[in-house]
Amino acid sequence: MKLAEERTWSLFRSRFRQTLTYWSVFFSFGLSIAFLGPTILDLRCQTRSSLQQITWVFFSQQFFLLLGSCLGGLVRRTLMSSLVALFSSTLIISLVFAIIPLCHHVVLLSMAMALAGTAMGVIDTIGNLQLVKLYQKDAAIFLQALHFFIGLGAMVSPLVADPFLADDRCVLGANGTNNSSSSDLEHLRNSLGGHGAMLGNTSRYPLYTEGVVVTRVSYAFWIMALINLPVPAAVLTLMHHEGLVSCSSSSPRLLSRDPGPSPAVDSSQGHGDMLDCFNLDRLRGRPATFFILHALGGTIVFITDGIIGSYAGFVYTYAVSPPLLMGYKMAGCLDSIFWASITAGRLCSIYLTYRFQAPVLLTISLGGVVLVQCVLMIFYTSWMLLFVGTCVLGLCISSVFPSMLAFTEDTLDYRGCATVVLVTSASTGEMMLQVLVGSVINSQSSYSFLVCSTVTSFMGFCLFLLLLYTRQIHINLPTDSSTYMDMKEKQEAPDLQVPE
What we know:
The protein is mainly α. It has two domains: 16-245, Up-down Bundle (Growth Hormone, Chain: A); 273-491, Growth Hormone, Chain: A (Up-down Bundle). Helix content is 72%, strand content 1%. Mean pLDDT is 81; it is low at 196-203, 249-272 and 480-500.
């Protein structure tokens, strides 16, 4: 234990500039991902749009986040191109925060959120890739910390926005009055906080689109733009430290060359761009387990991140529906408790990664998710158990993605392809499962929310057991890299064979 701690601190001290920069970039990611839910009603007033129109903004952000994740995988994985992409993405996020108050039409707002979503997806893929590349077999602890900063940013964003949110109608009718109480607004805001996937019956809320706009939410976005501005500055500082930019006009190093990987990075692992992952020459000769491990790892994070998205999106709707019928204020706390427990869980996982190997930590986490979901489904009439279960679920599921990423990359010798597959699968799952669960709740009942979560979590646990079995087969095979090199040598030197 002590030797492991000394090794970890030694690695961190030698690479602290890169590590702190990547952590700050993920803080920017968290800041961007959490602001839309609390501010959506004020943005509806700003754009004078209906509820149905404004929910397309959620879809725009999520869809382009997925595209950005794929785009991040296509970026050449040299140090220069990665840092340039991170600098551009974090700067775009600050610019989007600054221009959102100027978007007075829902189409313009959707375009701005599409741009922000693309930048977030690029950050998600490249940030994970670079940290895995930097630490390799020691990456698990630092990945847990990396994803803790997403939660930290997601906690800061609503706190900044809250003082500027409208307590009453933010568009006054033609007579300068409004007819709905602040509790109605709170209920709408909490319902829309789940990415607007389920509007329910909103006809009784007279939301004006014409009248005097009285929202002050613009100040929240400008403050968040300023909070985020040091992040691209930190990336630019790292680029200068790595010799990628220079303040001197006479220097030949002003983004004119790629110095290659930093001394702390092992360049022997063959990290290229995502196209290398699908290069037929490189894939030829790989065992079937190589592909199965990618597929299983991607499917597991598809399910777990999908559970996170759907639970955060619909736990409020479930709580205010029969049989629980919670009050709006009490039910509104559930989403905050869930995200706070995820953030706390990732902080605790930094220490737990010292004590447990990734398979053990993943088994406990995924098993805990299944157990919590089963308890919630059995005791579905208990509001107290819903609060406790929400907290425990967040703690259990928080470490799954970073642990699975480190575990899969370690099994596959840090080729980088697994990171791209897992990040893209996680983004897809968060978007797709939320839509699927929302449609099931609309057609069935609120109880189907717990049934869907329980079934998917059980599937994820079974797939993880299959992944462990496949991994055991894979590590007992000759390494796929040596198989590939043997085949390549035979193809390039056929004349060296001795004739009979």
